Amino acid sequence: MADSVQLVDPRSLRVNKDNPRLIFHQKELDELQDSIDKQGILVPLAVFREGKGFQLLDGERRWRCALKLGLSSVPVLVQPKPPKLQNLMMMFAIHHARKDWDPLPTALKLQDLEKEFSVIQGRHPSEAELAGLASMSRGEIRRLKKLLALPETYRDELLKELEKPRSEQILTVDQVLEATTAASALRKRDVVTAKGEDGLRRAIIQKFRSRVENNTVAPRLLAKLARGVQRNEVPLQVAKRVAEKLIKDPKYSISDAFRDSVAQSDFEHSIEQLADRIFDRLKEHEERGYKITEKLFATLKALAKRIERLRED
To answer: How many other CB atoms sit within 10 Å of the CB of residue 141?
Structure first.
């Protein structure tokens, strides 16, 4: 059982290294500090004894503000010291209830949780077990796993972005994940090589940074392109051409690529259907023994000229 609320010197507290929240935005800290300065700390910090001091379970932001304000004491609720696995589980449970935690730092801590379980149980946890340990859904676990699968350079880039004030952040975790999924889909259909896959991902990310792309889910159009190639609805060479242009042309958008590949294919398919219908109607016209009129002949002649012009283009 936890002890009653105590007042302790905030300098005797230490951060919890298993806390999945690694990013603390200064604006939010300033707002909380202003509130504490006026009203004090209304909710005690949760801690456990560690050596001569205490380690935080919950309340790191309040603790940081207390130090900044030079408070001589803060209210704490002392809990029994948990085993490492339980400590990790408690950290996830506490912070999962909040909507402002960042997914990448959380994903990095998920590795620790999975590793500690493996040490104790002698095996890796299943997806369902890991979801239970982290107080998350299996969908959230899969999303975090995708983040962990990113090359380290992208994870470092996202962490640097997260350290900026929220108003200055441009690139998001979801944008990088969408770019990764899209590039992977095109590689699987041989539209880009393994090297080209990373080049395409980097190009899409840069388009988000430069605001050429503003829609986070725009890369999903490239997944449609991949499916078009798979179904032989989009020629492979057409898909390769637009993918290469996406990589080389900073201003060429995903919508442009979709228009020049899948959209063009859909449009041409509709023309093919119309052409088949015209062919069938002309055949029926002939079978009925109708004499072609000057007006119909002129229309067909104009159509033939248009077709010839398309061939020349």
So the answer is: 22
